[in-house]
Amino acid sequence: MTAFRSGNTISGKEGRLFLDGEEMAYVKSFEATIEKNKTTVAVLGRRMDGHKTIGASGTGNLVIYKVTSRFVKLMINYIKTGADPYFTFQEVLDDKGSKRGTERVTIYDVNFDSTKIAELNAEGAVLEQEMPFTFEDADLPEELAAGF
Question: Which structural domain, as residue segments, surrounds residue 39?
């Protein structure tokens, strides 16, 4: 077993996020999660329930600094026309201080659930947009997936 080295931990600040190939330099935070959908299986003679995975669901959250009206336009366009676009995210995590190498996770069929369309703040705080989303598929390149 290889000894753990604290220098190999990965800093989340060393990442970049792309939406349909365009880098989003104004990202504050990003996360995506796959959650298994399970059903309970009662078994005669057992006091504990069993669980069977029957699918999965992808959700996430994107927080950006308010520097563009792109996502406001998307939401208003949806309510006016019904056009509901889907996107592809690619997260690139590359901490040069870590020996792990670059990780690229691609998330497909991203659809935003909500976003603020207007906000004011008398205290002068930097404005942010939080946008939860769902997604339908994801990939990790084979060279990284093989290492796990």
Answer: 6-145
Q: Which residue has the tokens 């996770």?
A: 105
Is 19 inside a domain boundary?
yes
Residues in CB range of 135: below 8 A, 6 or more apart: 32, 58, 59, 60, 89, 107, 108, 109, 110, 111
The residues facing 79 across adjacent strands are none
Q: Residue 136 contacts by C-beta under 8 Å, 6 or more apart in sequence?
A: 58, 108, 109
CATH number of domain containing 22: 2.30.110.40
- Count up the domains in the chain and report the number: 1
What confidence tens digit (pLDDT) does each residue in 15-26 have?
A: 899 999 999 999
Pinpoint the alpha helices (H) of 19-146: 70-81, 142-145
Domain assignment of residue 53, yes or no: yes
Determine, yes or no, domain membership for 1: no
Q: Write down the pTM of the prediction.
A: 0.86
Question: What tens digit of pLDDT does each residue of 115-144 get?
Answer: 999 999 898 789 999 999 999 999 998 655
